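Annual report, structural modelling task.

Input specification for the protoporphyrin IX containing FE complex:
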Amino acid sequence: MTQTSIPGYTYGTPQVAPSPISDADFALLKQTVLLGDEDLRHLRAAGEVLGPQVEAILDVWYGFVGANAHLVHYFSGADGRPDAQYLGRVRQRFGQWIRDTCAAQYDRAWLDYQHEIGLRHTAAKKNHTDGVVSTASHIHLRYLIAFIVPITATIKPFLANGGHSAADVDAMHAAWFKAVTLQVTLWSEPYVAPSVF
Amino acid sequence: MTQTSIPGYTYGTPQVAPSPISDADFALLKQTVLLGDEDLRHLRAAGEVLGPQVEAILDVWYGFVGANAHLVHYFSGADGRPDAQYLGRVRQRFGQWIRDTCAAQYDRAWLDYQHEIGLRHTAAKKNHTDGVVSTASHIHLRYLIAFIVPITATIKPFLANGGHSAADVDAMHAAWFKAVTLQVTLWSEPYVAPSVF
Ligand code: HEM
Ligand code: HEM
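The model returned the following structure:
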């Protein structure tokens, strides 16, 4: 978390409800995605490389979403058409998320905000943060999981722009993949009954 | 699908219930994981490389599961300890799955079997195929999603064993990643209410 004035970005504030995941369960999840100390080092390096490229990365991701009617649908307003203000507000938080993903301490404040982001993809909280009236009440779980691919695949060229060796770029990319999958896993929690998560 | 005599492997048979996914929705999902014709070509090449290494790959995956109590738990018998026969029966189908993943035609028979595999990870069908009495009634969704990482990360060295160029190994690996994420996405369907999938 860094101090920001991004509208609706509530990381580290009391507005964020506690994550239901225990420390022990989270440790097992990290173990399952093979996330270790080496990966943290590579994530920090990735943060250095990606920081100055955040807007260019968002251009690629927003370009992909905008080119796919079934995806941009989730950013629709009351009339069912893309809501430019909604897209713009989420874009700012998405940029911050890139930085946060690379800087993650995996502490309780981080876990709580993962819980919040998960909720913001479900009917429980989608549209609330930006006060949007949208024809899309939630993001379907299928796309949340499927998005692991575009969010991981498209980052590689940006990681390669930092002058690191091919081996280091591969290591940063592998760490990014683990970090993204870990987060999507946490975000899936409010989609299901507690007993099956 | 290939003709096999693997116990409990019912791909392409009338015992498999139809997948609820429409062709149109499946096309959008493939588009979302960026899976194109080039990837199919690379998956076929991956199949050539991985085919003779299936047992060695399963050794790695089973080694990982066996080394983690929270994972091997799902293969427990009535006494809560790992059931060697259950592990062995699933292993055969898992080996066939590697071949099927590389040979996938993405037709209705394939989709129906994805639905079946998803169900076999939930309480609806887990333990039924092998007539097992287990203390684990279902695989928790968190690990199903998290497993995208080990199943993707550990395959790379095996892909590199086929004498292909580094660029081709990367392309096969990228295609494998898309194929695995696509399948886990489909398998998540029986975990959630139809409206949120
Ligand atoms: C790997 C998968 C995904 C990642 C990493 C991701 C990331 C994010 C982030 C960081 C935010 C802002 C969180 C905040 O408020 O601080 C967000 C919100 C949002 N995302 Fe995603 N997202 C993913 C999948 C998707 C998909 C598949 C869609 C559908 C197109 C989508 C649509 C949205 C929408 C509409 C919001 C705003 C929700 C609200 O009203 O607050 N996301 N996402
Ligand atoms: C990427 C994620 C995963 C993949 C690709 C995968 C693959 C498979 C395959 C191919 C089968 C056999 C399907 C058939 O019957 O033909 C299977 C069954 C099974 N898997 Fe998974 N699996 C994944 C995640 C997991 C996880 C996280 C666990 C927990 C350790 C797990 C435990 C099991 C068990 C216990 C069975 C037997 C289910 C039954 O009773 O029929 N799987 N899996």
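Chain B touches chain A at residues 28-29, 31-34, 68, 70-71, 122-123, 138, 140-143, 145-150, 152-153, 174, 177-178, 181-182, 184-185, 188-189, 191-192, 196-197 (CB under 8 Å).
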